[in-house]
Design a protein that fits this description.
Strands 1-2 form a two-stranded antiparallel ribbon. By secondary structure, it is mostly helical. The chain is elongated, with a radius of gyration of 28 Å. Helix 1 runs antiparallel to helix 3. The protein has 2 domains: 138 residues, no CATH class; 39 residues. Helices cover 77% and strands 2% of the residues.
């Protein structure tokens, strides 16, 4: 189950990733529309100068820096959370916040109804993942602890029926019943 701090961390990662993408895109477009350095004699020099222009443009590197802060938080959160939930939640929230931020910035959407429908489907998919994980965890918590012990006893009895000292079982040579218990 996801606790409150993990949920907030995953939400923040989605916000960092989703909200910064439209700003980075806008910064790159504005930078490309400015004067490009072109030197017919040295293509490498003009390439490097054009990339340096990107680095000094605050509209490019500030959203990128915030995006990378989200990545650091993501890796920190992955260390303590369920991987099967964290990855889809972060990516889905990133998509949702990216759509919202793009709309707030006034970016044109070709088919807004499809975008809204897609966001709803992504959120439903994440809900299904979370529900499935919760059901699996509840099933694990309510399993009888005796079930594992009974399974071990059955295997020990199975091996013990065919046991003679020194007999090879599978790829394991067994010299006593105690070794069989330890191997299981």
């Amino acid at each position: 189950m996801v606790n409150v701090s993990e949920a907030l961390s995953l939400l923040l990662v989605g916000v960092f990733w989703g909200c910064t993408n439209p700003f980075m895109r806008k910064g790159f477009i504005e930078t490309k529309s400015t004067k490009q350095y072109q030197d017919d004699n040295d293509g490498l020099k003009s390439f490097i100068l054009n990339k340096l222009v990107l680095l000094v443009n605050i509209k490019v590197w500030l959203p990128y820096l915030l995006n990378q802060c989200g990545s650091l938080l993501y890796y920190k959160t992955l260390a303590s959370s369920n991987l099967t939930l964290s990855v889809p939640i972060c990516n889905a929230l990133s998509l949702v916040f990216s759509c919202i931020t793009s709309a707030l910035l006034g970016e044109r959407m070709n088919k807004p109804r499809r975008a809204i429908f897609g966001v709803i489907l992504v959120l439903l998919g994440v809900g299904v993942c979370m529900y499935s994980s919760e059901i699996d965890e509840l099933a694990r918590d309510h399993m009888l602890p005796d079930a594992d012990i009974n399974l071990q006893e059955q295997k020990i009895n199975e091996y013990s029926q065919h046991f003679e000292e020194g007999e090879v079982i599978g790829e394991m040579r067994v010299d006593s019943v105690e070794e069989v218990e330890l191997e299981l």
